[in-house]
Amino acid sequence: MGKSEIRNVCKVSFDKPAAEQPNLHNRWHPDIPFAGTIKDGETVKIECLDWTGGQIKNNDSADDVKNVDLTKVHYLSGPFEIEGAEKGDLLLVEIMDVQPFQDQLWGFTGIFDKGNGGGFLDEIYPSAAKAIWDFEGIFCSSRHIPHVKFAGLIHPGILGCAPSAEVLDTWNTREAELIAANKLDRDVALPPQPLNVHAGSADEALTEKIGKEGARTIPGRPEHGGNCDIKNLSRGSKVYLPVHVPGAKFSVGDLHFSQGDGEISFCGAIEMAGVITINFKVIKNGVADLALKSPIYIPGPVEPSFGPGRYIYFEGFSVDEHGKQHYMDVAVAYRQTSLRCIEYLRRFGYSDYQSYLLLSCAPVQGHVAGIVDIPNACTTLGLPIDIFDFDISPTAALAKTDKLNMGSCAFETGVEEGRVTAGGKNSKVSFGGGLTYKE
Amino acid sequence: MGKSEIRNVCKVSFDKPAAEQPNLHNRWHPDIPFAGTIKDGETVKIECLDWTGGQIKNNDSADDVKNVDLTKVHYLSGPFEIEGAEKGDLLLVEIMDVQPFQDQLWGFTGIFDKGNGGGFLDEIYPSAAKAIWDFEGIFCSSRHIPHVKFAGLIHPGILGCAPSAEVLDTWNTREAELIAANKLDRDVALPPQPLNVHAGSADEALTEKIGKEGARTIPGRPEHGGNCDIKNLSRGSKVYLPVHVPGAKFSVGDLHFSQGDGEISFCGAIEMAGVITINFKVIKNGVADLALKSPIYIPGPVEPSFGPGRYIYFEGFSVDEHGKQHYMDVAVAYRQTSLRCIEYLRRFGYSDYQSYLLLSCAPVQGHVAGIVDIPNACTTLGLPIDIFDFDISPTAALAKTDKLNMGSCAFETGVEEGRVTAGGKNSKVSFGGGLTYKE
Amino acid sequence: MGKSEIRNVCKVSFDKPAAEQPNLHNRWHPDIPFAGTIKDGETVKIECLDWTGGQIKNNDSADDVKNVDLTKVHYLSGPFEIEGAEKGDLLLVEIMDVQPFQDQLWGFTGIFDKGNGGGFLDEIYPSAAKAIWDFEGIFCSSRHIPHVKFAGLIHPGILGCAPSAEVLDTWNTREAELIAANKLDRDVALPPQPLNVHAGSADEALTEKIGKEGARTIPGRPEHGGNCDIKNLSRGSKVYLPVHVPGAKFSVGDLHFSQGDGEISFCGAIEMAGVITINFKVIKNGVADLALKSPIYIPGPVEPSFGPGRYIYFEGFSVDEHGKQHYMDVAVAYRQTSLRCIEYLRRFGYSDYQSYLLLSCAPVQGHVAGIVDIPNACTTLGLPIDIFDFDISPTAALAKTDKLNMGSCAFETGVEEGRVTAGGKNSKVSFGGGLTYKE
Amino acid sequence: MGKSEIRNVCKVSFDKPAAEQPNLHNRWHPDIPFAGTIKDGETVKIECLDWTGGQIKNNDSADDVKNVDLTKVHYLSGPFEIEGAEKGDLLLVEIMDVQPFQDQLWGFTGIFDKGNGGGFLDEIYPSAAKAIWDFEGIFCSSRHIPHVKFAGLIHPGILGCAPSAEVLDTWNTREAELIAANKLDRDVALPPQPLNVHAGSADEALTEKIGKEGARTIPGRPEHGGNCDIKNLSRGSKVYLPVHVPGAKFSVGDLHFSQGDGEISFCGAIEMAGVITINFKVIKNGVADLALKSPIYIPGPVEPSFGPGRYIYFEGFSVDEHGKQHYMDVAVAYRQTSLRCIEYLRRFGYSDYQSYLLLSCAPVQGHVAGIVDIPNACTTLGLPIDIFDFDISPTAALAKTDKLNMGSCAFETGVEEGRVTAGGKNSKVSFGGGLTYKE
């Protein structure tokens, strides 16, 4: 009773060449045989190789990038039959998760040599270069670009349904016209090329046909999306993909741990092998009903903020400043939480009264964190870091730099400022040097 | 044709006492006369005094806080007749804006003396204290709490509709029971008190009645909300308020430029006088239809993040690195924008190739900013600040501290590292010391 | 004591032509006389006309847009002397606020006729058209595009410092080369043109010179920013502007209540007249120290989310379900807040036990809202709207549509499902049909 | 070269009882033997059982919840020796990730019977109940609470370092005083109890001692945190934990896929077994340097927004409306992207000119998505969903409800409104009914 695993419809191997694995392919063509079948409504896992099919290694030389064989890239997983999908339908693809393999926790970013691939800035930066990234949970960092760490906005670079013969013909025609008109000193598009063609489980004759006709995977194209390289088409996103052939023939690959807008160095994202979890739903007649000429998508709910939270959270429990245990008293807990914050701010030079005023009016977050674990209610108070014009982080506090001159708040007449930090006029409670309460 | 002003239904004066202004009042009672009429669906402006009615001054002593007369506070604006509202309806209040008066750009936070008002931590901090805050646009800062500046999450502390006689009776009964059972050494609730009663335009006899029966304004109460002091019930919020009497008798006041959860020092928010802009809509029979026993609200869309944006944005235009003007070429502009960012990162020790790799894979934001101002397309590139483990802000860049050791990215064999920062192997473009392009 | 107003350095008039107001100008040129002086560190207000200088009216015809005189636009406020600024410095401009005039609460978006201005899609949409927008607080809406309302990301379209003679010469040279090379059937750039030149307080001879040399204001340019039209260069943003001439000669104008990336219809933002509040700081030698070739900026903290908050917030107070008043008891308040939410969810078909389970595990926000207003603690509980796959908003609740089939949670053996919603097995509390507690 | 796996320091078994696994324990005590050793600076994986040690099953009866043995819960993983940690240090714990086991993709939320555990609302809801949740990637949903799906804010309920003998004595003393003074009709705290004690690899004699002295795990406590149940102490969070004994003796457990503030039903979170990935760093003398009496934390960067993205993103490529292929032309791609959006909005009744105006001024997001995949530049345009007062989602578009009356924008004189939607006056391009371009 109750599901506990998700079906894996595409296992890939690192021990044999991509070109020998029948559930992979590197062309867009309607005749590539199905690599598996997925039910309408089903959620499955699909394993993917990195986009170079393993040509780039986890080392400190970019020679592999320089010499990469660009006819052996973009091995996509699929194509998969989505039951019930027909031409004119939309395939609603919800990306439930993307993860690297747990025993392959790394990826790479490359700059191609200007003579073999190039990139957006290749006239200025013509050499091949590379950075290897290590993954630790949601974060990545690189020995080649020190002092950088961030959470990945992980996503597939390529996903789409196979073109019909008509759509494929449109592509080949318009790209051939561009090539024919080219006067630039560089390739402007890549025509079909019967070299290193991998057509999944197709036999030799079919593979030859696909090699002659099949569209290359480099550009994204308006009719199906394909290699769109959109950085926030990430976890939780819902993509609406036009279906052109029976069964949809959905393919996916080119996983990215992260990418910037433009993916400017061409091999620009953090390329990786991994597993994507997808839910599929067929929307009958959706292309006409939404009049879609190109895919649309709605981003998911977990886009990283690309910074740590900008609050320091203090915890407090229902044990008062005299050490007395109270039973589930949230007000006592919140009072203690406030005091923890006031104590923390002392080291930057603020008097307790200044901090008490500040906690009252600054937009602190006061939460009922736990209210069922007897006898201790737990509350938290989040102090926004950025309302200060100096650094109040624990790192800064530990650095023990000079305190700023914090002046004073206004007091009633007769209060000696020196005493108020230590508990205030007429207070029965005073604070010793160790910042602990004493009577 | 076309509306160009918003009707102001409540002007307040700073030149005469609050108690003499007939559109203000300081009790909750169904018999306080209407201060004006508002149409169902109308948007109006309502001016409000600060909650002490002007007792607290913009100076450097807290004696005014210590000696505040707490029987002369919470002068609310209203009550207003909302046309068509009847008992059992909901009043949908949308807060379109809250602003301080443009010639009164300041507010205050107070700590009351333990003997006159007190607060959440008064056993530890018994003295009166005060901070004055200056407003500059969306920001506030205080000479009494230096090195703090933040955007206000501006909101009304009090808003609600008048209780019916029955609801008022419930309040008075249950609070009297609490007072009767009190064994603490402090006030636990404030009963009706015929002292300094201001009942708007009521005559003497009615004012006397209201003084004897009218509920005090300090606590919020479940049946109508009232002094709820909710920090994010701010601009753009929609509040659903139960209506208990014909015409609703809506009142509002106690404006806060900002407040923390709990408003812990009691006079804790940044208290201010100002103008609130509200849209009113009546939902017939809404109390039963939503079965509301207390107000609910949906927060608005402009909650500050309480920090600056965590990106540095670079601008680029369609003038290339040779100074040539291109016509609306977005790719040229985006290429220039990328170069601006690479140049910026040099001063922290990164080589151009490291930055080029980083721009490709880090989640940079690449926007088409302006695409219609001939001949220059303008693009922007936002670099996330927090992916670095050191400070890359302009402030840090200007401080000229020592560069970190940034190592190197991987290169193809034969590339001299020293040269690649300066344009790369075989490059026709090199960079001089002044970081300008030369051929 | 204590500042209470902000100095207004530029008043504009709606009663006389823009061309007659000496603190406005419509060319970039180093010789335009100063319109005022601002201290290093000072915050000031600057009034601005809309970018057409009042040519577009609040009515329902686009003839004014069709016939707009494009030689009479971009009347900028300034140029202002910033004390101490010199060539090579950076001017740090912090945008403290932007507001429309309170008696001119409207703006416009136009599509220019293809023959007079045009725009990004003019080959497809060649006619002139217009939408008038009304402002109510932070929101705008238009009778010409019904069913749309949003919070403005308000910003200046143009800001920058005057070019030096050398910089101006660079601009004129490179744009002339583009014009000379033009083979398109449209203008690709606008050269200096001595027609309707407004050079502020310049005398006739100087105005003639400025007309011959002065750069047009349409394009943004890399050396100073200018008409960059960046949609999130909004409130709270800090812009770093290169200074080219003594005193900086800062100008600003073309205020937008909102704009989309690209400002695609050319007259595309919501254009308005209004007041911008700016703080100015001079960073000596900043151009070299940051090696800036173009402005950079850090966005502010109040970017709207362009949707309402995605939570429904429930309020609860320390009055328990038997009507008993408790003194500042946060747990009682939070328990009541939870019950308010459980009651609310009943109308969608959930049993109380389902909702109780859901409140425990869904990411609800539980806040200590007010903790100082005796005798009532106030807590809030925010229920995320989007975790449901149907609409739980008050609007939907009021619509009284059919309930979905909500099934049941798992129960212990022997519990009758029908009873548990009404208080549970062995419960002394049951719920009547009116959703009120009865014993 | 290059790390590719993360060390797993704690494997748990589902095949034998928790009480027989030596790397688990269910008391806080300084003498529980180390379960493993972790380096200062190391990142490791730690497997954890669910907090009931497997007592709750994936089925449709809550009898297991009703009869749960609460003396057999909170089997924590650890305690681990952190090399170099000493009393007075802080342990900086960075939560790199938390994941369920891939073959156990489910969790549970329970309501305890009032007579066995109870909860926050047990006086009103006394019966046991349960909901089982299925996990699919980042999302969870339950057959017991239909029509709810959300992304988990996944976190550990319990983490902390072992108390010293002195700290333990303080806990036992103050909680005993509370128990002694109890006059309520329920347990207010749980004293040490030598029943079902699991002390990891301790021998019999030591286990007996730990049973008599060891603190129960239910409450969080100020000195070390422990069972704090804080909902956003999630992935990416950095927690600063006081160290009380040599080697820190860090323990963790009680993983939650999600929890609401308060965890109100006691067994309230979505409880699960799984794997937590943590980076450990020792901060020497940190307790005194930060004067921490309780843990503090800084939340991570990936808090879900608990809703889908509130934008619909349109994709466009550099193939123009005549089917012509352009080479990497971003302006063509952005123009197409704009047209895709205009076409989409037609079905809701907007004319093309209205949409063109709206795209110009509403805060649409225009991104350079991909700029290196020849020949197609790819741009995206994000249209904010919530600026409309009706539903523009694809789901709504597919529902084919009646169109609203959208009126018209303002036009220049002489334009026939009927024609402008179809391409505009003088346009060479018109649109057929099928929403495709024809010449």
From TrEMBL, chains A, B, C, D:
Highest taxon listed in the record's lineage: Eukaryota
InterPro entries given in the database record: FmdA_AmdA, FormamaseFmdA
Coiled coil stretches, renumbered: none
GO molecular-function terms, A-Z: hydrolase activity, acting on carbon-nitrogen (but not peptide) bonds, in linear amides
NCBIfam families per UniProt: FormamaseFmdA
Protein name (database record): Acetamidase/Formamidase
Protein source organism: Podospora didyma
